[in-house]
Amino acid sequence: MKKILLLIFLFTAPYLSSQDSKKLWGGIEIGYGISLSDDGDSYNTSYGSENKMAISSIRGVIGYYIIPELSLGAGVGLNSYTKPGVNILPVWFDIRYHPFTNKKIQLNGDLGYTVVTSESKQKGKLLTDLSIGYKLFNFKRISLQPAIGYNFCNYSIEETKRFNQSRHSLFLKISILF
Prior knowledge:
The protein has one helix at residues 2-17; strands at residues 24-40, 45-46, 54-67, 70-81, 86-97, 105-117, 122-134, 137-139, 142-158, 162-177. By secondary structure, it is mainly beta. It has one domain: Beta Barrel (Porin). The protein has an 8-stranded antiparallel β-barrel.
C-alpha cells in the first residue's frame, strides 16, 4: 500500500504544486534506444545484425532547484529491454545541472534501484542514466526537452545459482517538463 501511495504522489505532485513555485518542477519522459550489450555470468550478447536489442521507457520525475543551476529530485518509471526480455520498475534519485545561464542545456544523472522485474527468476539491482538535453521551447510553465544519453542496468538471474548481468544502452528521450 505504501508503494502505491508513493507512486501516486510521484505522478500527481507536479500537477498539484508546480504552479505555485518556480523551484519545484515535474515531468514525464519517454525514451527509446538500442542496447549495446548484455554481459554477465549467464550469457554475453552484443548489438549486431542478428541481434537487435532495444530499450524503451516511460518515467515520471519531480525535483526542486536548490540553486538556479542545480536541481535534486526523484523518479519512478517503467523500462523495457528486449532480447532477452526484461521489464523493470526502477526508482531513482535525479540530479540536473544547467552549465549556462540561459538554462537551455541540461546535464542529467540518475542513480537508482530496480524495485520489481517482470520475471520471477530475475532480481533488479543498480540502475544509472547519464544524459544531455536541450530545452526547445517554453509555453507558460511547460517545456519540451529532447536528450541523448547512456543507461546502465544491472540485474541477476536466479536459477540453480545466481547469474549477474549488466545491460549497456544508448537512448533518445523527450521530456515534457512542468
